[in-house]
Amino acid sequence: MPSDIPSIDDLEIEARLSRLLPAGPAADLLERLSAAAEGTFTDLTDAEQADEAAFRHICPAPLSGDFTARLQAVVAGAAFPLDEKIVLFPKGAPTVKCSGSFPRIAVAAAVAMMGAAAALLLPDGEGGKGDVTSAVAQEVSDTNASSEFVPANFNRGFSDARDQGVLWNGVDQPHRVVRVEYLDRATFVNGEGKTLELEQPKVEYILIPEEID
Amino acid sequence: MDESPEMAPTSAAPGISPASSAWNEWLATHAPRLLLFARQQARSHQDAEDILQDALVRLVEKLNSGEFVGGKEAWLPYLFTSIRRLAIDLSRRDDRRKRREDVVGDDIEAEQRDVFHPWFESDASDDETRIQLEQGLKELPPKFAEVIVMKIWGERTFAEIGETLGISQNTAASRYRYGLESLKRQLGGARRRGDLSI
Predict the structure, then answer these.
(1) Is B152 in contact with A52 (Cβ distance < 8 A)?
(2) Candidates B27, B41, B127, B160, partner chain A, best to mutate (most A CBs within 10 A)
(3) How many whole angstroms from its chain centre is CA A146?
(4) How many Cα atoms sit within 13 Å of A111 on the Cβ side?
(5) pLDDT for A139 beyond 80
(6) Interface contact flag, B57 A74, Cβ < 8 Å
(7) Cα distance between residue B129 and residue B193, in whole Å
């Protein structure tokens, strides 16, 4: 059974070792420790910055055309924030559905009229929050334009709201981005009693100042 | 390396949305330096491209889902970190596969293919310098080479490098200095010719 009491040999060795002193750190190590303590170790000298610039002058090889196309395909559907207030979005086509067999030109004209109807029927030309129901159009022309469609009703319904995260460049006020989806519905009627209903989704991004500690 | 400041697209090409145009400009500026880092981390050019693509997919998924924290300035630190982690994962998978299959020829084939995929662009006058620089980085211990690539061409700060690599910024600075001195010694020939002003 080993003894916990050190032997005479152990004590002698311990005494000899304790008389030895560790070698002092090299001058450059002392300089490094001192700089680290002062918080200046990560600052590059002028010579180091010049070396860095010389190496940086040799540029990484450009990407091949194929690989560039692969990366572009990855980001194809993603929005791109220019800054905290401006976000670029990829192209998307609004959906339009028609009831009945109306010619395409009539549908295109109706979409344009829907925009005009929104400006005409909504307060201050802007959509309100939640459902907005406007008055029926006051006149329907009964001259040669009996088949022309005029706006009859407009409704903006709230569909969805999602938190898209925080936009912040680390300097100015951060903003939380909220994506709000609406569905605009417009009803058009003509003198012949036919109706045309159009739906168009609308997306708004609302920037809300975010508190920071 | 010329620093091209990020600019808002003044006009998109016909048929290309402003977002796509902005992304193309961003990729043109940053993708080469990200690929260089991926090359330093990976075992082959093909792996490096796959890793970079996977890292970009992860970023876009987080952006689209609203999970990404931080603005555009946080993209590059996220991508450097992702590239490193993906490279480590891929390396471990390759090692396990090689132990199972006892494949020894793959690395040699990859090296032969990579001759056609240089790390740096060059013209005829400095082609040898480019080759020496690439070889020098490959021969450096990886812990030095990755700091050098991130600092010089990735233009990351020591604090960002430390966060990516899981080390202190002082350790990052120390590895940078060691690595740079070692690289300069290896490039002694290019310096004597005057191809490198260091």
Answers:
(1) yes
(2) B27
(3) 48
(4) 15
(5) no
(6) yes
(7) 10
What pLDDT is recorded for position B102? 64
Percent of chain B surpassing pLDDT 70: 78
> Which of B19, B158, B159 is opposite residue A90, by nearest beta carbon?
B19
For residue B156, list chain A residues with Cβ-Cβ distance below 8 A.
none
Q: Which residue has the tokens 């080993």?
A: A2
Nearest CA in chain A to B126: A58
**pLDDT(A129) > 60:** no
Q: DSSP string covering chain A, please? A: ---SSPPHHHHHHHHHHHT--PPPPPHHHHHHHHHHHHT-TTSPPHHHHHHHHHHHTSPBPPPPHHHHHHHHHHHTT--EESSSS-EE----PPP---SS---HHHHHHHHHHHHHHHHHHSGGGS--SS-EE-PPPS----STTTT--EEEEEEEEEEEEEEEEEE--SSS--EEEEEEEEEEEEEEE-TTS-EEEEEEEEEEEEEEE----
How sure is the predictor about B140, in pLDDT bands with cuts at 50, 70 and 90? Answer: very high
Domains located in chain B, CATH noted? 16-117 (no CATH), 122-198 (1.10.10.10)
* SS3 at position B108: helix
Question: Which of A102-106, B72-76, B81-85, B118-122 is least confident?
Answer: A102-106
pTM: 0.63
Give pLDDT tens digits for B175-193.
Answer: 999 999 999 888 876 666 6
Mutate to test the interface with A, among B63, B133, B134, B191 (most CBs of A within 10 A): B63
Q: Which residue is it, tokens 């002082």?
A: B170
Task: Give residue-wise pLDDT tens across range A75-88.
Answer: 998 889 887 777 88
Scan for tokens 């086509």, then name that residue. Answer: A93
User: For residue B7, what pLDDT is reported?
Assistant: 43
